[in-house]
């Protein structure tokens, strides 16, 4: 059974863009490795060791990203007004006076600093399939709390 990773079209494109950047950088890293190899004794050549390691990391990252694309399921935003992958939500947390905005994304795209929360995080799970005006209880590891959904777009 193959497990497909859910993601937004934007998240899919971000991975494609990173792959393109890495592939563009690969010839430069290969050239650095070749130059370091030509410096002589490889057993005491730190430039060679570093260049080889950096190229290996690049190749490993490319394989990882390729698998992310291969096993991804792109989810289109639900236009019914309910929260789903790709929805932008405005939330009011219990005890706060200021509303906060987030985007519901796939696991690999989540980045709280950029306002992107995963659909399968405790908050994401509580919000899924809800509509504006609802108040949901989030069951988080540190305890439960209520969140009011102000808007969904």
UniProtKB/TrEMBL annotation:
Q: Name one GO biological process term.
A: DNA-templated transcription elongation
Which UniProt keywords are listed? DNA-binding, Elongation factor, Protein biosynthesis, Transcription, Transcription regulation
Transcription elongation factor GreA/GreB N-terminal domain mapped to chain residues: 6-74
User: What is a GO molecular function of this protein?
Assistant: RNA polymerase binding
Give all residue intervals belonging to the Transcription elongation factor GreA/GreB C-terminal domain: 80-152
Which domain of life does this protein belong to? Bacteria
- Quick check: keyword Secreted in the entry? no
User: Which NCBIfam families does the UniProt entry name for this protein?
Assistant: greA, PRK00226.1-4
Query: What functional role does this protein have?
Result: Necessary for efficient RNA polymerase transcription elongation past template-encoded arresting sites. The arresting sites in DNA have the property of trapping a certain fraction of elongating RNA polymerases that pass through, resulting in locked ternary complexes. Cleavage of the nascent transcript by cleavage factors such as GreA or GreB allows the resumption of elongation from the new 3'terminus. GreA releases sequences of 2 to 3 nucleotides.
Family stated for the protein in its record = Belongs to the GreA/GreB family.
Q: Output this protein's name.
A: Transcription elongation factor GreA
């Amino acid at each position: 059974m193959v497990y497909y990773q859910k993601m937004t079209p934007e998240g899919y494109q971000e991975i494609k863009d990173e792959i393109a950047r890495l592939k563009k950088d690969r010839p430069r890293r290969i050239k650095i490795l070749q130059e370091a190899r030509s410096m002589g004794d490889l057993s005491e050549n730190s430039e060679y060791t570093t260049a080889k390691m950096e190229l290996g990391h690049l190749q490993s990252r490319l394989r990882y990203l390729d698998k992310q694309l291969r096993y991804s399921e792109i989810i289109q935003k639900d236009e019914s007004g309910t929260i789903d992958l790709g929805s932008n939500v405005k939330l009011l947390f219990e005890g706060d006076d200021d509303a906060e905005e987030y985007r519901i994304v796939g696991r690999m795209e989540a980045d709280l600093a950029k306002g992107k929360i995963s659909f399968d995080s405790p908050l994401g799970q509580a919000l899924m399939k809800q509509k504006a005006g609802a108040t949901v209880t989030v069951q988080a590891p540190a305890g439960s709390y209520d969140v009011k959904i102000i808007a969904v777009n």
